[in-house]
Amino acid sequence: MAQQISLADQAKLQEMEIEMMADLYSRMTNACHKKCIPPKYNEAELGKGESVCIDRCVAKYLEIHERVGKKLSAMSTQDEDLMKRIGMEQQK
Q: What is the reported pLDDT for 88?
């Protein structure tokens, strides 16, 4: 039987997801800015090289974030399965 999540819990989960996405955006912005844009600004607009660097940096950052998320989900599922098996063995 599936567990129902209360509205308060759903709101908390949504808030946590928003905070996690804001943190991801902040970290990605800082990392790519530090990597791609020199500390001394020569022009107000980004140069072509800077733009290409930022595009690649963001793409790589998001790709790695997705890979890590999938790996953590798989590990979590394995942990849940293991805990269920242990619980079933203890009941015997």
A: 76
Q: Is residue 56 part of a domain?
A: yes
Number of domains composing the chain: 1
pTM of the model: 0.69
Per-position DSSP letters for the chain, written without gaps between them: -PPPPPHHHHHHHHHHHHHHHHHHHHHHHHHHHHHHS-SS-SSSSPPHHHHHHHHHHHHHHHHHHHHHHHHHHHHHHHHHHHHHHHHHHHH-
Quick: pLDDT tens for 2-11. 456 788 888 8
On whether residue 58 sits in a domain, the answer given is yes
pLDDT tops 80 at residue 53: yes
* CATH number, position 26: 1.10.287.810
